[in-house]
Amino acid sequence: MELKGHIHSVESFGTLDGPGIRYVLFLQGCCLNCLYCHNPDTRLLGGGRLMSVAEVVAEVRSYRSFIKNGGVTLSGGEPLLQPEFALAVIEACRAMGVHTALDTSGAVPLEQSRAVIDATDLILLDLKSIDPQIALELTGDTHWNTLATLEYCEAHRKPVWIRHVLIPGYTLDEQQLNDLADYILRFACVSKVELLPYHTMGVYKWEQLGLPYALAGVELPSEEQVNQAKHIFRQRGLI
User: Fold this and answer.
1) Which of 107, 222, 230, 122 lies closest to 180, judged by CA?
2) 138 contacts 34 by C-beta, under 8 angstroms
3) Residue 140: is the preceding peptide bond cis (ω within 30°)?
4) What residues does each domain of the chain span?
5) pLDDT tens-digit profile of 9-22?
6) What pLDDT score was predicted for residue 46?
7) Is the distance from CB of 17 to CB of 101 less than 8 angstroms?
8) How does pLDDT run across 132-183, given as a tens digit for each residue?
9) What are the angstrom distances between the C-alpha of 30 and each of 39, 46, 146, 205, 218?
10) Structure confidence by residue, pLDDT tens digits, 71-115
11) What is the spatial distance between Cα 215 and Cα 33, in angstroms, rounded to a whole number?
């Protein structure tokens, strides 16, 4: 039987999900319930449209001239909830000489994610919070699997970019940011840290789905707040 995956959407000219211009495949399904999720429509497992590995490879091949200095990124949702499909796509892309990246929360246990991580060129790891209680409040889960994923990448010298969203009242906190920066300093595998200001561009999707948006009263971080956060990481040579 031909291996197929549940796909939410595709971005053929992505510039935000890894180095260079990328073909981004957003897989359907997520194991977290992030309060600030800008793609709540990706959460449902088993939704979306079905695509075979061959169909994905054919599309990637048609865009090779555009992504020759970039590559393919698997995102979501949480792509590691479809590990067999994700692995097959990544292996097929690498066989074509195409760079691969995996955008993941790291919330999936290593028993399920290890093979995909091993096969991928670059891990874009969304570290929700260095504080387990705040991670739980924001996502419905703690951060222990995410930290275990980072430890695994370090042990196996897998390149990692850390992504962290700055949310006033939650993660945009001086002590937390210092703790996070000090923690990341331990990892030689981390080559880049992206501090992403909280935004509300996906709120309309919550409204369309008839879901309450829990962070409705949270203000966007100011430019000064973002710069102060970046300064903490810049002092340590992390950005």
Assistant:
1) 230
2) yes
3) no
4) 4-234
5) 999 989 999 999 99
6) 86
7) yes
8) 999 999 999 999 999 999 999 999 999 999 999 999 999 999 999 999 999 9
9) 10, 10, 14, 16, 24
10) 999 999 999 999 999 999 999 999 999 999 999 999 999 999 999
11) 13
Residues across the chain: 239
Q: Which residue has the tokens 């996070």?
A: 180
Q: How far apart are CA 161 and CA 151, in angstroms?
A: 13
Element (H or E) spanning 15, and its range?
Answer: none
What's the one-letter identity of residue 70?
G
Name residue 153's amino acid.
Answer: C
Q: What ranges make up the beta strands (E) of the chain?
A: 4-14, 22-27, 49-52, 71-75, 100-104, 122-126, 160-166, 190-197
Helix axes 83-95, 53-62, angle to 10 degrees: 40
Q: Is the dihedral of CA 121, 190, 74, 45 positive or negative?
A: positive
pTM above 0.90, yes or no: yes
For the chain, the distance separating the N- and C-terminal CA atoms, rounded to the nearest angstrom, is: 46
Report the C-alpha gap between 18 and 73 in whole angstroms: 7
Task: Write the class of the CATH domain 4-234.
Answer: alpha beta
